[in-house]
Amino acid sequence: MMENTVFMSFTFYSTILILKMYVIAIITGQVRLRKKAFANPEDALRNGGLQYYRDDPDVERCRRAHRNDMENIFPFLFLGAVYSLLDPSPAVARIHFFIFCVGRIVHTIAYLLRLKAPMRSVAYGVAQLPCFSMALQILLATTPYW
């Protein structure tokens, strides 16, 4: 496995993305504490009372950013792992992984900082391009076996 430079590059960028998701989870928790908006009554009771068992727009924004990551990063993990097995050009593969990673980071920053449209949409679209490319290459490589 250590000889597969494409897989090692994929592993590097995937780990960056997973760490980014952990950071968003931590940010969400911190915003919950700061805004006193808890999802569970027992947490609200522990932090001041049931009046804090409520939704908050800032917490919901963090949660949407995290959910969007799950909807996009999890498919990338599958596509990138399988794509790595197809023996693609290491340079081209690295470009695919890099573009996706940067696109997701920019998307998260745009989401959490409420940057002007269409920044978030552009970041989302750019990040999808390498995923579609990898999916197409996987389908082309596996079509003879269906």
Task: Give the CA-based shape.
Answer: elongated
Q: How much of the residues is beta strand, in percent?
A: under 5%
Biggest sheet descriptor: none
The ordered string of helix (H) and strand (E) elements is HHHHH
Percent helix, as a range, is: over 70%
Low-confidence spans: pLDDT under 50, at least 5 residues? none
Distance between the termini: 27 Å
Structural class: mainly alpha
What's the total number of strands? 0
Evaluate the radius of gyration.
19 Å
Number of helices: 5
The whole-number mean of residue pLDDT values reads: 96
Question: How would you sum up this structure, described in words?
Answer:
This protein has 146 residues and is mainly alpha-helical. 77% of the residues lie in helices and 0% in strands. The longest helix is centred in the N-terminal third of the chain and has 31 residues.
Topology:
Layout: H1 5-35, H2 41-46, H3 57-84, H4 90-113, H5 119-142
Helix pairs in contact: 1-3, 1-4, 3-4, 3-5, 4-5
Provide a short characterization of the protein structure.
This protein has 5 helices and no strands. The chain is mainly α.
Offer a few descriptive terms:
0% strand; 5 helices; 146 residues; mainly alpha; single chain
